[in-house]
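Sample intake sheet
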Amino acid sequence: MHILTCIRRVIPDNTGMTECYIAPPCLEALRELYRDNDIVVVDKPAGLLSVPGRHPDNYDSALTRLQAIEPETRVVHRLDMATSGIMVFGLHADSHRALSRQFQDRLVSKAYVADVWGELEQESGEIDLPLRCDWPNRPRQMVDHEQGKSAFTRYQKMGSHNGYGRVWLEPVTGRSHQLRVHMAAIGHPILGCSFYAHEAARSAATRLHLHATKLSFVHPVTTKTLAFDCPVPF
């Protein structure tokens, strides 16, 4: 298995890019959980982009680290930079196409663990709140019952952890920032969330306490069901 660390490239500052946010360097390794001729599954650390940004200084990402080993590696889905956990990539066009179709058709099983502000009253429940981009405040998202796209999350209370609520989250849809917005909308923002948490919740953790802990899907070539679990790092 490969342990993939920071990749940087130097490009003269004459690109004309208008993107102003530069991601801090992520020195933590990208850990491979599984690799064969068709796919690679990794544990992405918090603070690492899933794919490179437009600005040259945002080149380092899970995708570019993997492409340093296999240039044909293709991204199938994404995790927010601040979110850690399991990702799967295709290693050629056919596997990428088959995996992407599974995500599009919601045939993939995904689960996250989060620490949130306060303890949920209900043991389990569902959040059905449509989301759209808050354009003046990109990349923030917002609940919008008129123009938003369907967004659906199942949750289950796991108990408490270090005095805060711990929750199991299963996103049925895959909207940007969905879990963060949904938890904040029901009054339990995720700890360390710089976009949607109030100050007390935001400062309660040094990183976003959201981790993609489980992923299962059908192998695009062998058609066998693969299931991966990745322990919570916080």
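Comment: The longest strand covers residues 152-161. The two ends are 24 Å apart (CA to CA).
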